[in-house]
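Form 7-S
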Amino acid sequence: MTTDPTATRHRRRPGFRAGAAAAALALVAPLAACGSDGSSGGTPTINLYYPPEQNLQKVVDDCNAQAQGRYRIAYRVLPRQADDQRVQMVRRLAAQDTGMDVLGLDVTWTQEFASADWIREWTGQDKAEVEQGTLTGPLETARYEGKLYGAPKNTNVQLLWYRSDLVPQAPTTWDEMISAAQDLKGQGKPHQVLTMGAQYEGLVVLYNTLAESAGGKILSDDGKQAVMDAGTVKALDQLKRFATSGVASPSFSNATEDPVRLEFQAGGGAFQVNWPFVYPALQEADPELANKVKWARVPGIDANTPSKVTIGGVNMAVSAYSKHPAESFEAARCIRNEKNQKFSAINDGVPPTIEKVYDDPEMVEAYPMKETILDELKEPAVRPLTPAYQSISTVMSAILSPPSAIEPEKTADELRDAISDALQSKGVLP
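Output:
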């Protein structure tokens, strides 16, 4: 989810605390479970395979204390890159490995894993507890064919970051932002609009936000057919206009999250569309500039229609091959409960999926932009929900790159054909 130092691919799990990535990278992910399976009367080990998160071990320790010896959760840290995480889990699940119990899945993988019968459905009281108070958008990513297969632990969403010393108020549309940037350029002031445009998931996320904001549909509601309607064409036109506006960075078609952050910090940008990890990073790197930077909802396409911004995050799933499913569901519920979501939000910067957490007084300092984040999360854009998402993302990023070469109608036709093939597993390696 190319990547920033606090996220995997885009999707992302940016950490708000300095040094989190370095600490997480020091952890090692063993390739095999090393605890008792409980068959001989020992304490069962529940192996949690989850992306690097600096302070998650504290959550695991607290959940182990709560279990009072009935089982012990062992945190097996996955590789940092999202693609590497997926490869490790797919290979082991395809081999019916019983050493994996609870899995931390990127939100775009839940349907794929469910369709392959690799993860168990959440039912009964487990399901009721997960759904209680959880935001609708994250829950949507955890369902497949109307059933719940994941428990949303954290989510994420991009914001617009802008220089308040250069721009009196945040633009509400991309055209308004482009126009403001062009005016600044004419005055010889910092003016660039910075965001991710390289051929990878970040470009797909940008386009999905534009398409959803324009009311477009990439896939049919059942996820089985490519649509690419008028709204998606409008989004392609908007992306092309931005790429050729003269205010995008010259490196736009190669830009990923952290280089975008660094370019903004260097002082050339007036606007940045990026994940919330930029906030603490800027405070640490340049407090004077940080005082001039404000945040707002990502601009939309039409002035009277709020944007819909693509969400990321992690869903917790239970392996179909776990020897201890009851304990695994209980462990997953504990790790993503309200108390622990607040802890992870404050200490690791991963936005909660339980709405009530945002009202906690302790969130004010850690998330001064929490109201904007919550507003976007209440009306989010979700990436196409299909088991074939990995293939679809691959072909979309290839066709959309470079954005300056987009021909809206023609590109929409190309996307429709390529997505149709990807849905049938044609012409692309997942």
